[in-house]
Structures are given as structure tokens and as C-alpha cells.
Design brief:
Helices cover 44% and strands 15% of the residues. Strands 1-2-3-4-5-6-7-9 form an eight-stranded parallel beta barrel, surrounded by nine helices. Helix 1 runs parallel beside helix 13 and helix 9 crosses helix 11.
Length: 354
């Protein structure tokens, strides 16, 4: 894994995560075009990575397969690293993911990241439809090792999959008498001490998802570093923290846009569908005292305000966690709001304008 200098004047690398948010009133086709536009903007402005997440059965999270969208983005961008943040590995067979990301790495050599999580990315019943058995989470460490074994084609001789190969990959390159391809950078994702310790023991880069609301980022980072064992991909720990962000010249509007995501979370807590209402509908919602407390809490979990206010929050986060990289989980009801957030933060840190 190659380490890179911080972004512009920021004390960290700056990246972006797109949850394929599709606001009420927007079609999936419009959302996908917005993803392409945002990836191209992040590429032009010099951000380091553009990741997408896997969600299922959520009306306002349209990309159930980030790898399909990444395939399109390999031809729509020139420089930025592209990846899944992440693939929920217990939903999939490791061999299939190795094949898919081997193809992506072939399309964009040296630009592909594979972030692995163990959450289902959906509700319990949908997870049951995806996973078919209840022990999928318990197999996560084994699945990671299998996936890496397929990517590197280096299972030990006694392994039952020793003669099973992911194509494209090292095995097919050797038989075709060409140079071996590069391999995607494999990350461990999470929002708990479990994922931090696992990433450390495997010697993999670790990404902590602060947008899920956990306040354990600093603790998780400490656990990761304490458990870190050097590996063939990392000599020392490497960390990323992702956090919700909405920046606007008007701080009141930034907070209004942040409330759309908070309302989506409230609906999910009430076992309703996760969908993004326009801010005016959120304002008009007759919330109970308890619901108002939840809306306020989740509105403020997203860093919102002017670019200077959001940047100050990002820097406090980096100082507290020691993260090498901060990833903006762009929020708000509309694609224009999300693009504006990236533009304003890029401007604040003096990133290139073209």
C-alpha cells in the first residue's frame, strides 16, 4: 500500500464516500448520474479516494452493488482511487468478490480499493434473504482470508481451495505468460472494537465509520494500533475515519440539509423505510419530544455549517483519532448539496480547481 502526502493544506488525506443517496423526488437514474458527476468532481479537485457503500432494500440508498458502479467510474475518472466502502462480505462468496475486484483492478490498475465489512447493510429479514444462514457474521475472519487467498493465489498446499483460482489474477497471468496484475488494496471496515482488533491482527488498513453514530472512534483506533502486526501490505498502521458532512455558505441551510439524513434514521428506528425527505417536510413533521431529541442528535452527528466550521470539526476529529485520512460521507437531500460540500471543503484546503 502506497502512502500519499496530505491533501492541500489539510493535515490529512481527504476522500469522499457516496452512499448513492436518492432523495424523494429523484429517480435512480438521476442518482446514478449524480454519482458519476460527484466522482468526476472529486477527481478534478484532487481528492484521494471515491468510495461507495453496499445497501439493500433502502429506497434512498440506490446502489446495492458498489462494484457495478465502480466499473462505470473506471472509465469516467482518470486519477482518483475507486473502491467499495464497503462490500458486506458475509453477503457474498469470497471467490466471486475476488473475481469482480480482479476485473476492476484490470480496468484501473493501481486505483482500486476493496473495503470489507460484516454488517448486512439492511434490515434483518432482508439480511436473511441475502445470507441464508444465521452464522454468516461469525465466519467473517475466515472469509477475509479466503478472499485474500483468491486475490493473491497463494493458498497453502493443504488448503481445499489450493487449485481454485480467481480470474483474472496471478494464475491466469502465469498461464498466459504475461506479467502478474496488481491486486486491490484490501481494507477492514467497521464501527466497533471487534473490527479494529481484527484489522490490526491482519495487518490491514482500517476505516472507522463514524457516520453510524458510534462514539468509540478514538478507542477503536487505539485498539487497532495496539493489535497491529506488520504484514506484506503494511509496515505500520494506517487509519481512515469517515464522517457525515454538509457544507454550505449558509450554516442554517447546512443544518436543514443535515436534518434530511436524521429523519431517514428516525424512520429506520421506527421500522419504516429509510428515505430522504426534503428539508421542508422534515421541518413540518409533527415530532414527539422523543422524536425531536433523536432528530437533533442525528442532525448533529453530521458535521454541518460553513466550510470553515466543517473543516474545524474535521481537524478536531483527526487530532483526536490520529487518522491518516478523513473521508467525507456527503449528506443532504439533493445531489447539488453533496457536490457543493465537496467544492467548499476542497476550496478551503486549497485543492486544485481543475
Amino acid at each position: 500500500m502506497t502512502r500519499t502526502q496530505p491533501s492541500g493544506t489539510a493535515p490529512f488525506l481527504l476522500s469522499v464516500l457516496d452512499n448513492a443517496h436518492t432523495g424523494v423526488g429523484e429517480t435512480a437514474q438521476q442518482a446514478f448520474q449524480g454519482i458519476i458527476d460527484l466522482a468526476q468532481l472529486a477527481d478534478r479537485r484532487g481528492l484521494h479516494r471515491f468510495w461507495m457503500s453496499e445497501h439493500h432494500a433502502m429506497p434512498s440508498a440506490t446502489a446495492s452493488s458498489p462494484q457495478l458502479m465502480i466499473s462505470r467510474l473506471t472509465g469516467e475518472t482518470a486519477r482518483i482511487r475507486l473502491g467499495a466502502g464497503g462490500v458486506m462480505l458475509p453477503n457474498h462468496a469470497p471467490l466471486v468478490i475476488a473475481e469482480q475486484f480482479g476485473m476492476l483492478e484490470t480496468l484501473a490498475p493501481g486505483r482500486i480499493d476493496l473495503g470489507l465489512g460484516r454488517a448486512p447493510g439492511t434490515d434483518g429479514m432482508t439480511a436473511a434473504a441475502l445470507r441464508r444462514h444465521q452464522g454468516a457474521n461469525d465466519e467473517f475472519p475466515q472469509q477475509i482470508l479466503e478472499l485474500v487467498g483468491f486475490l493473491q493465489d497463494d493458498f497453502p498446499a493443504e488448503h481445499p481451495y489450493r487449485h481454485i483460482h480467481a480470474v483474472p489474477g496471478p494464475w491466469s497471468a502465469d498461464l498466459n505468460r504475461v506479467s502478474r496484475p496488481s491486486i486491490p488494496d484490501v481494507w477492514i471496515l467497521g464501527s466497533s472494537p471487534y473490527s479494529a482488533q481484527l484489522a490490526g491482527r491482519l495487518g490491514r488498513p482500517y476505516a472507522f465509520a463514524l457516520q453510524f453514530g458510534s462514539n468509540e472512534a478514538e478507542y477503536a483506533m487505539d485498539l487497532y494500533r495496539q493489535n497491529f502486526r506488520p504484514s506484506e501490505v503494511l509496515d505500520e498502521p494506517y487509519t481512515l475515519v469517515s464522517v457525515g458532512a454538509v457544507a454550505d455558505d449558509d450554516p442554517v441551510e447546512a443544518r436543514r440539509q443535515s436534518s434530511s439524513g436524521a429523519m431517514a434514521m428516525l424512520k429506520m428506528f421506527k421500522r419504516e423505510s429509510y428515505h430522504l425527505l426534503p428539508p421542508e417536510e422534515v421541518e413540518a413533521y409533527p415530532a414527539t419530544h422523543q422524536e425531536r431529541a433523536i432528530l437533533d442528535e442525528w442532525t448533529d452527528k453530521t458535521m454541518h455549517g460553513t466550510s470553515a466550521t466543517v473543516a474545524a470539526g474535521l481537524e478536531r476529529l483527526q487530532q483526536g483519532t490520529g487518522a491518516d485520512e478523513i473521508m467525507l460521507v456527503v449528506g443532504g437531500h439533493s445531489r447539488g448539496v453533496q457536490a457543493r460540500t465537496v467544492e467548499l471543503i476542497a476550496d478551503h484546503y486549497g485543492l486544485p480547481s481543475a
